[in-house]
Specification:
- With about 300 residues, this protein is an alpha/beta fold.
- It has a seven-stranded mixed sheet, sandwiched between helices. Strands 3-4-14 form a three-stranded mixed sheet, with helices on one face.
Length: about 300
């Protein structure tokens, strides 16, 4: 196994390999190769000796890997801009907690982070009024300090990108409910309301601590907006209406469906993976083993 960690975060992969070797994995069983994907990626993925590639990252890089790899097995866990639909019968206190938990964890740097919240009009203002003070309570800073609830982004350039997209949305007519300020790599937890679905904060993967809120007239419009994306990794809905929940599960094009929680939820035992630009293949131990197994058929014919 060759492990090529992201250039910004190699230490966890190096520590994992160290632990595996201490646990008895043969020294030649695993190698960690650090460096730039732009330098190493094509050589690793195009090598015919590599029979399986499992990649987590952006859709653009995933597409390049598939072009370079040729005929071999690949698992692509790529980006998303996960939607959360809020129906009029939802418990707004639970919706707000789920929005905070799934929209701002790890400073929004989670591929299934709640990025788009689609709220039906009867509870649109009530939701925003309940969400604003809860988001303003999120303390930011050094994640090693007990009082901190949200740390910095991984790079200053990413924080600057989030800042740019939020400013662009506000200039285009979106309303800044709270947040919107940056200090170095730290970007304040941000809520944008009245977001046009055509804005970048809604259409592309933000991967940062801002949630874009849009209203919908009914469940049909909400599902249409949820599906108005090139991604399909995870989606959530809050409702007490079983028919609405089943409609959502059947009609929303997403690999993972959450009912009465935000999109950023997973358990290791479940099959995890997306559709369209969110990738192909499944993670989770059982499903990863299947993805990494080449099935061989043996037929024994008896003598005449």
């Amino acid at each position: 196994v060759l492990v090529k960690p992201a250039s910004d975060t190699p230490l966890s992969a190096l520590k994992l390999a160290e632990i595996l070797l201490e646990a008895g994995v043969p020294p030649l069983g695993i190698s960690v190769i650090t460096g730039s994907g732009g330098t190493l990626g094509d050589a690793l993925c195009g090598d015919r000796r590599v029979r399986k590639i499992s990649f987590t990252g952006s859709a653009d890089v995933g597409q390049r890997i598939c072009r370079v790899a040729g005929v071999k097995k690949v698992t692509m866990e790529l980006g998303s801009n996960s939607p959360l639909i809020v129906m009029p019968d939802a418990d707004l206190s639970k919706v707000v907690e789920a929005t905070v938990a799934t929209g701002y964890s790890n400073a929004g740097q989670v591929c299934i982070s709640a990025q788009r919240v689609i709220v039906l009009q009867p509870v649109y203002q009530d939701y925003l009024e309940a969400l604003k003070p809860r988001v303003e309570q999120i303390t930011t800073g050094n994640p090693l300090e007990d009082a901190t609830r949200m740390g910095p982004m991984i790079r200053q350039s990413d924080a600057e990108r989030v800042e740019e997209w939020v400013r662009e949305a506000v200039a285009g007519g979106a309303r800044l409910v709270c947040g919107g300020q940056r200090s170095g790599t730290c970007y304040q937890p941000t809520v944008l309301a009245d977001v046009d679905p055509r804005m970048r904060v809604s259409r592309e993967e933000l991967f940062g601590p801002a949630v874009a809120v849009t209203s919908a007239a009914d469940i049909d419009e909400a599902i249409r907006l949820a599906n108005d994306t090139t991604y399909g990794l995870s989606a959530g809905i809050f409702t007490q209406d079983l028919d609405a929940a089943i409609q959502f599960a059947r009609r929303v094009h997403s690999g993972n469906i959450q009912i009465n929680w935000g999109p950023a939820w997973r358990a290791d035992l479940m099959p995890y993976g997306g559709l369209a630009d969110s990738g192909m293949g499944k993670e989770g131990p059982k499903y990863a083993v299947q993805e990494m197994t080449e099935l061989k058929t043996v037929v024994i014919h008896g003598s005449a």
